[in-house]
């Protein structure tokens, strides 16, 4: 009986190993099939070229011509070596491109300067609030210290009277 149990166990293990090999082959075949079907679908997809109208071509040509005429000095009139505190946003109005030909106005520099100015103002306000809060806290601490001293003084005087 023990020999039969051992034989049966060996046979079960062999059958299981064979089924695992077959399953692995089937999975590989399924993966290969999925990949090939995906590749076929991608090959079928055709990107249609975008049709550009004559009006759009003219608009694009006008924009390119406009930007070809604008130089760095016209676009950014102030040198980049100036500290931001020196011009502090007041020169942001000088950023306006004075060209009548321009279809668009570049406001990037103005936006950045205004954002920095706003950030500095917010930081300044926060610092001022913190400074005031610290001052109030110091006053409270000072009053509390005085009160503790007075209580201690009263307690010692009361103890001396009892003697």
How would you describe this protein?
- Helices cover 75% and strands 0% of the residues.
- It has 163 residues and is an all-alpha fold.
- It is flat.
- This is CCD43 protein.
- It comes from Nothocercus nigrocapillus.
Number of helices: 5
Distance between the termini: 104 Å
Percentage of β-strand residues: under 5%
- Helix/strand-derived category reads mainly alpha
What is the share of helical residues? over 70%
Rounded to an integer in angstroms, the radius of gyration calculated over CA atoms is 42 Å
Query: What's the order of the H and E elements?
Result: HHHHH
Give the structure's gist in a few sentences:
This protein is mainly α and 163 residues long.
Element layout with pairings:
Blueprint: H1 2-44, H2 54-69, H3 72-75, H4 84-87, H5 108-162
What tags apply to this protein structure?
163 residues, mainly alpha, 5 helices, 0% strand
């Amino acid at each position: 009986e023990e020999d039969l149990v051992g034989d049966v166990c060996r046979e079960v293990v062999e059958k299981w190993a064979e089924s695992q090999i077959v399953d692995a082959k089937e999975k590989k075949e399924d993966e290969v099939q999925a990949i090939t079907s995906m590749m076929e679908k991608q090959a079928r997809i055709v990107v249609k070229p975008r049709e550009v109208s004559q009006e759009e071509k003219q608009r694009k040509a006008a924009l390119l011509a406009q930007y070809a005429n604008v130089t760095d000095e016209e676009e950014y009139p102030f040198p980049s070596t100036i500290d931001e505190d020196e011009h502090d946003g007041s020169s942001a109005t000088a950023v306006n491109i004075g060209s009548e030909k321009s279809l668009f106005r570049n406001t990037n520099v103005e936006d950045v300067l205004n954002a920095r100015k706003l950030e500095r103002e917010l930081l300044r306000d926060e610092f001022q609030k913190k400074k005031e809060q610290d001052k109030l806290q110091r006053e409270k601490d000072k009053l509390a210290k005085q009160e503790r001293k007075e209580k201690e003084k009263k307690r010692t005087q009361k103890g001396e009277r009892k003697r």
